[in-house]
């Protein structure tokens, strides 16, 4: 998402774009009624956390993000939550899913307007393994990868970006050296959704292969059972025909 400029200002690094990646999303956990804390509403089924966090291996976002504002469903008390220091996250309990507005404010040196993104808070698992996930009471993780692109940053902010944290530097809009993702920040403009374990998860890939292997074995067993039943039907049919022939001769 390109960070919108507040206007032309002297001292900008002409022809240069700097991008910084981050992850935003949520994790929801089922509340066991037998161990529910007394402070939690009896109608609430899940505890969840919304967050904006760094991409591994970069440990920090605070050198370019000043604060993050989460706009929750209006039924929550103080539905507009502002987090001014890492970790940029909000934890609550509830029973329903809803769209969350996340507004990211940059440090004063950036001289950039805040950027808005949207996230759908998921409480329940979806997909082919959803039923087993519910049975295992696994946490429901929904994460997205995003990049903010600072086009022609002011010199002070450029120095801050290039001496802190990680990310990339591109020269010129859309150049091969740039990793810009002009996806916008409006509602409905989504970015790359990450698998359960987060970015580049070999563990999740292994789980998926195991699930496929189990599915193949199940299909093979079903085919063998169907062949056996077919052979039994054919044998029964041969026996019936044989019995009919014997009865006619008699």
What does this structure look like?
This protein is of the alpha+beta class. 26% of the residues lie in helices and 30% in strands. The chain has helices at residues 130-136, 155-163, 202-249, and strands at residues 16-30, 46-54, 65-71, 80-83, 88-94, 99-106, 115-120, 140-151, 168-171, 192-194. The strands form two sheets. Strands 1, 2, 5, 8, 9 and 10 form a six-stranded antiparallel sheet that branches. β6 (99-106) and β7 form a beta hairpin. The longest helix has 48 residues, at 202-249. Residues 171-190 and 196-201 have low confidence and may be disordered.
- Model regions low in confidence, pLDDT < 50 over at least 5 residues: 171-190, 196-201
Q: Count of helices?
A: 3
Question: What's the total number of strands?
Answer: 10
- Categorize the overall geometry: elongated
Overall average residue pLDDT: 82
What is the share of helical residues? 25-40%
Look at the helices and sheets and give the structural class. Answer: alpha+beta
Beta strand %: 25-35%
Radius of gyration: 28 Å
The helix-strand sequence is EEEEEEEHEHEEH
Distance linking N and C termini: 89 Å
The largest sheet is: 6 strands, antiparallel
């Amino acid at each position: 998402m390109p960070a919108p400029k507040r206007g032309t200002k002297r001292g900008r690094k002409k022809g240069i774009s700097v991008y910084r990646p981050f992850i935003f999303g949520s994790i929801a956990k089922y509340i066991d009624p037998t161990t529910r804390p007394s402070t939690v509403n009896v109608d609430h089924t899940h505890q969840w956390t919304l967050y904006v966090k760094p991409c591994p291996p970069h440990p920090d976002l605070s050198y370019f993000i000043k604060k993050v504002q989460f706009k929750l469903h209006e039924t929550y008390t103080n539905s507009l939550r502002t987090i001014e220091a890492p970790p940029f996250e909000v934890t609550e309990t509830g029973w329903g899913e809803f769209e969350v507005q996340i507004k990211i404010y940059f440090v004063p040196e950036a001289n950039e307007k805040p950027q808005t993104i949207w996230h759908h808070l998921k409480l329940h698992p979806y997909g082919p393994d959803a039923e087993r996930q519910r049975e295992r009471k696994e946490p429901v993780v929904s994460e997205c990868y995003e990049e903010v692109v600072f086009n022609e940053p002011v010199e002070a902010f450029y120095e801050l970006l290039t001496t802190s944290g990680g990310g990339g530097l591109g020269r010129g809009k859309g150049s091969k050296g740039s990793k810009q993702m002009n996806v916008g920040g409006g509602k409905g403009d989504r970015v790359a959704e990450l698998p359960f374990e987060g970015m580049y998860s070999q563990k999740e890939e292994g789980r998926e292969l195991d699930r496929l292997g189990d599915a193949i074995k199940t299909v093979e067993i079903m085919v063998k059972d169907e062949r056996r039943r077919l052979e039994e039907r054919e044998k029964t049919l041969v026996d019936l025909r044989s019995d009919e022939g014997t009865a006619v001769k008699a």
